[in-house]
Amino acid sequence: MFDDLPTLSHAEQQAAVEEIQKLMEQGISTAEAIGIVAQRIRSEKKAKAEEDK
Questions:
Q1: Cα gap 51→15, rounded to integer Å
Q2: CA 52 to CA 36: how far, in whole Å?
Q3: What is the pLDDT of residue 25?
Q4: According to the model, what pLDDT value does residue 53 have?
Q5: 24 near 33, Cβ under 8 Å?
Q6: How wide is the angle at C-alpha 46 spanned by C-alphas 48 and 38, nearest 5°?
Q7: CA 19, CA 38: separation in Å to the nearest integer?
Q8: Angle at which helices 10-25 and 30-52 pack, to 10 degrees?
Q9: Per-residue pLDDT tens for 9-22?
Q10: How far apart are the C-alpha atoms of 20 and 17, rounded to whole Å?
Q11: How far apart are CA 52 and CA 37, in angstroms?
């Protein structure tokens, strides 16, 4: 599940944790919240990598 998750800085990790916590406060399960945030991070990192080419 996490094999393709890019390396994150400490600040990025902290922001991801905060986003996961906000989703959980809205009633989303932990696993689903992690999945949502992980997918967003993957998409953002992929888009950035494409821009850098």
A1: 23
A2: 25
A3: 98
A4: 80
A5: yes
A6: 115
A7: 11
A8: 140
A9: 999 999 999 999 99
A10: 5
A11: 23
Amino acid code (one letter) for 46: K
* Cβ contact 8:16 at 8 Å: yes
Look at residue 6 in the predicted model and tell me its pLDDT.
Answer: 75
Chain length of the chain: 53
CB 51 within 8 A of CB 30: no
- Residue-wise pLDDT tens digits, 23-53: 999 999 999 999 999 999 999 988 988 888 8
Q: Which two tokens stand for residue 39?
A: 């997918």
Q: What value, to the nearest 5°, has the Cα angle with vertex 11 and ends 49 and 19? A: 90
Torsion of CA 28, 33, 37, 39, to 10 degrees: -100
